Amino acid sequence: MRRKWSLSHFSVLLQSLLIMTSFIDWSNTVTANLNACLLVERGTQNLFYSFERSAAAVELAVQYANDVILYRVGISLNTTYTDIGSTCEARNHLVAHAMGLRDRGTICDVYIGPGCGSAAESLYDYTRSIGAFIIGSPAAGVGISAPREKYNYMGRISITHQNNANIILQFLHQQNYSASTIICDLYNSFYKQLSTLLENQMRTTDQKYYSISKFVQVDSSQITTRAIETILKTNSARSRVFILCIPSAAVRSFMLVASDLGFTAGEHVYLGVNLFPSTTWGNFSYSTGDDRDDAS
Ligand SMILES: *[C@@H]1O[C@H](CO)[C@@H](O)[C@H](O)[C@H]1NC(C)=O
Ligand SMILES: *[C@@H]1O[C@H](CO)[C@@H](O)[C@H](O)[C@H]1NC(C)=O
Ligand SMILES: *[C@@H]1O[C@H](CO)[C@@H](O)[C@H](O)[C@H]1NC(C)=O
């Protein structure tokens, strides 16, 4: 049976509301404007980070922060977006973007972004000098120019390459693998940053393991079957563990060549890195609808 709302229910509700609202100082007015400067990439096929995908969430979050939280303490949060392009190059224009904002009279109390580690590291050179904080989103590759610990005026969210590198290294150690060959796609910013940090991490934490492992650089979009064959053959004399820091389509090509060479009979280990399906990494799947689906 459904219970009807009685007058006493309403009275309780009203009392609760009155108690709650008595804690809110309705006389608060805005006493401070906080400006968050968003410096975020506009991604492409090869660059995963994209403001387009996060703009709506950012807008909702800022509105929520202003309407529900910050007004109580008299703060108004404002954001300014700057498009910082769509590459992850070590040589970038982050300082110019930050200076441009300053020249136009925009004071940035905090910087949010960028996605690329190298861009965040460049931005840091400027923001540290003015004492401003960077909320890296995710600035996953930070730690390339200097150890991560040197960037103490920067916080990061979510996944980082440092964590991914640690997971890979832990896996290798737990399995007691004695040497690895790491295939790195230097033309894909995600894998380039991941393999750079993996190499740094291995060199600094385990010099011995690093000295017997090998990092092989490839351009997976151009690589031929013959080249893959050479890489697998020459390296398998020394190491049976291959870490494939390359997009999914290239992982499939590597595995097919490995199968043709008889390298998939249980003597070798292949580790592909793909966090979830995306246009940057592709889709981990044996099936592409070509005549090699069965072999895959
Ligand atoms: C918010 O930022 C924009 C762009 O910089 C600026 O035009 C606007 O005046 C700012 N609003 C407040 C309340 O500071
Ligand atoms: C790795 O080596 C240690 C020490 O010899 C051993 O206890 C462990 O079981 C080995 N792990 C695997 C996965 O073989
Ligand atoms: C990945 O593959 C699945 C199944 O083939 C498909 O439904 C999905 O759209 C693909 N995702 C991407 C990002 O390509």
UniProtKB/TrEMBL annotation:
<keyword id="KW-0732">Signal</keyword>
<protein>
    <recommendedName>
        <fullName>Receptor ligand binding region domain-containing protein</fullName>
    </recommendedName>
</protein>
<feature type="signal peptide">
    <location>
        <begin position="1"/>
        <end position="32"/>
    </location>
</feature>
<dbReference type="Pfam" id="PF01094">
    <property type="entry name" value="ANF_receptor"/>
</dbReference>
<dbReference type="InterPro" id="IPR001828">
    <property type="entry name" value="ANF_lig-bd_rcpt"/>
</dbReference>
<keyword id="KW-1133">Transmembrane helix</keyword>
<keyword id="KW-0472">Membrane</keyword>
<dbReference type="GO" id="GO:0016020">
    <property type="term" value="C:membrane"/>
</dbReference>
<dbReference type="InterPro" id="IPR028082">
    <property type="entry name" value="Peripla_BP_I"/>
</dbReference>
<feature type="domain" description="Receptor ligand binding region">
    <location>
        <begin position="55"/>
        <end position="278"/>
    </location>
</feature>
<keyword id="KW-0812">Transmembrane</keyword>
